[in-house]
Amino acid sequence: MNRLQLAEIQEVETVEREGYKIENKQSAEWALRKIKVLKEQIEETDQLAEAEIERIKAWQESENKKSKYDIARFEGLLLEYMVKEREKDPETKSIKLPHGTVRFRKQPLEYVRDEENLIKWAKGSTRADLIKVKESFDWSTLKKDITVVAGNVVDKHTGEIIEHVKAIEREDKFEVVMD
Predict the structure, then answer these.
(1) How far apart are CA 84 and CA 111, in angstroms?
(2) Is the sign of the CA dihedral 56, 62, 67, 71 positive or negative?
(3) 0.70 surpassed by pTM
């Protein structure tokens, strides 16, 4: 941040304490300059924070990398142990130890599905009940075909008032656009 920007921010802090009103184009221009400097300050702060976050994430990853490797190695050794124990006694499913349990768990079947061909099969068989059809209203198409008359939403093609839609007039949105 350069000296001019620093002075601008200090001036903003002074104005906050004393209060300020915008009464002409010069004071409006002054306020826009202040907004620009403050947005630049936010951008600078965000960039600094992002750099620190990335640095900390890199540190975290390097710190955890060895531990994750060691965990995988020990899990592999435990798997070898369990396989040997299971060879001795095929009924062995788990071994409970003071700091945890090593075990084999039955996995459910995994189904690899071809959705497109399953739909064709269901349509061609007596199992059409297995096909889901989702209804939804096509608002984008209707929106192109309506107009508002005396507060009522009217279909342009039929002239029918659509009672299930209300048009609510909203105030203009104020915004500050920076060059």
Answers:
(1) 30
(2) positive
(3) no
Are the beta carbons of 149 and 162 closer than 8 angstroms?
no
DSSP assignment of the chain equals --HHHHHHHHHHHHHHHH-----SHHHHHHHHHHHHHHHHHHHHHHHHHHHHHHHHHHHHHHHHHHHHHHHHHHHHHHHHHHHHHHHH-TT--EEEETTEEEE--PPPP-----HHHHHHHHHHSS-GGG--------HHHHHHTEEEETTEEEETTT--B-TT------PPPP-----
pLDDT in tens, 57-66: 999 999 999 9
